[in-house]
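Q: Okay, next protein. This is Co2+/Mg2+ efflux protein ApaG from Aequorivita aurantiaca. I've checked the sequence twice, so it should be correct. Can you predict the 3D structure?
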Amino acid sequence: MVQQVTQGIKISVKTKFDGTYYKDRVMLYAFSYMVTIENQSKDTVQLTSRSWIIKDSLNGIESIEGEGVIGQKPVLAPGKKYAYTSSALLFSPFGAMKGYFNMVNFTTTSDFRVSIPLFNLSAPFSTN
């Protein structure tokens, strides 16, 4: 598990290899990841959007941006947590992801960015 705190918001990510998947006769490697967002600040915040960089060791880099996470824009009061699970398909058994969440502080009405730390995606059979 990797963790990082930005402006009082702690991001934790845990990954899992889910197996292989065939699509159009191409083998893909399926990974899931659980992200936990913990508000350690004194202010209520809301996640408004996200940005991901996904690196696949065989297929280069892909960028993904969008509103919220899994169709939600969670509001976190001080001391509260929000967790969700998502997934990624890679062309190789190795990859990595990182990114950030755009958030708004309800007390100051200011926007800020929370870093999502770099985490590796690797199939257990492919590492020594």
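A: Here is a summary of the prediction. The mean pLDDT is 95. Residues 2-123 form a domain with the Immunoglobulin-like fold (CATH 2.60.40.1470).
Q: Noted. On to the next one.
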